[in-house]
Design a protein that fits this description.
The protein is α+β, with helices and mostly antiparallel strands and about 290 residues long. The protein contains ten helices and ten strands. Helix content is about 50%, strand content about 15%. A five-stranded antiparallel β-sheet has the order 1-2-3-5-4, covered by helices on one side. The chain is globular. The chain starts with a helix and ends with a helix. GO terms for molecular function: ethanolamine kinase activity. This is Choline kinase. InterPro entries: Kinase-like_dom_sf.
């Protein structure tokens, strides 16, 4: 907090208070004579493929695309953004019939328009590579989940074959409800730790799995996104990618159990996501 208060971007005296949420960064609300700001604190996390130069580029591009707040100031490990006075969505909010089309429009705008404003190097977030890399990390660090590693990586490889062929967009890649804000007039998409080029089906599958969408809602989202009736082939590829999003979240948590110092129950998060992945994969195999 002393480091944040010493940043050169403030107008007059600044006050800080912690913001709840966030399982990758520390977050604060800052207020000075000019306004209120959200401050994100976090270094590179190579084991999770989080590189802050990429996150910063994505935030600038997302702001230019009209889907994210502006960056006021940034230096290594610290980013200061305009604070959005808003309601953070819950999974129940996301599932509301009037909300889902607005969210899909927001995500599609990120996918389509953010790449027009990207500068410098940009990463690819290829979920199947991430799954394989997580498997290697868990083996190297002798994770207590070791007996599952070979099976989970093999399932990821099979899902990669099932999910193709692939289109490519600039994905957010972390569509938790907590990363969606509603200011009463418009929606905002925040937190670009994992942003990078990816299949649009990863964000659509992640949105569904993270927020408990029904099958009918999933079909409606796909039709709204692609502006066309859903084919059996698209549903099959989408279901595979949805499984992959849950598998990645499970293995992300397994790695975080070993590496994170944040106060969060990663073991419980692992168990919940592993159960959700098993059920999703069973459903996929019976399609």
């Amino acid at each position: 907090m002393r480091r944040i208060m010493a940043l050169p971007c403030w107008t007059g005296e600044v006050t800080l208070s912690p913001l709840e949420g966030g399982i990758t960064n520390l977050n604060y609300l800052a207020e000075d004579a000019a306004g209120r700001y959200a401050v994100r604190v976090g270094s590179d996390i190579p084991e999770h493929h989080v590189m802050r130069f990429n996150e910063l580029s994505a935030m600038h591009a997302a702001y230019a695309a009209g889907v994210a707040p502006a960056v006021k100031y940034a230096e290594p490990s610290v980013t200061v953004l305009d604070f959005v006075d808003s309601h953070t969505l819950t999974a129940e909010d996301v599932r509301a019939p009037e909300m889902l089309p607005r969210i899909i429009d927001l995500v599609k705008r990120c996918h389509r328009d953010a790449p027009k404003h990207l500068r410098g190097p940009a990463l690819i977030f290829w979920v199947f590579h991430v799954i394989r890399d997580y498997g290697a990390t868990l083996a190297e660090r002798q994770s207590p989940h070791g007996p599952l590693i070979d099976e989970l990586v093999s399932l990821g490889n099979s899902l990669e074959e099932a999910a193709g062929p692939f289109d490519m967009v600039f994905g957010h890649n972390d569509l938790l409800a907590a990363n969606l804000l509603d200011d009463g007039t418009r929606l905002w998409l925040i937190d670009y730790d994992y942003a990078g080029f990816n299949s649009p089906l990863f964000d659509l599958g992640g949105l569904a799995s993270n927020n408990g969408l029904s099958e009918a809602q999933e079909v409606a989202c796909l039709e709204h996104y692609f502006e066309a009736p859903v084919t059996g082939d698209l549903l099959h590829r989408y279901a595979a990618m949805k499984c992959a999003s849950l598998l990645r979240e499970t293995m992300w948590s397994m790695v975080s159990e070993l590496t994170s110092e944040l106060d969060f129950d990663y073991a419980a998060y692992t168990a919940d996501n592993l159960a959700a992945f098993r059920q999703s994969h069973t459903d996929f195999l019976t399609m």
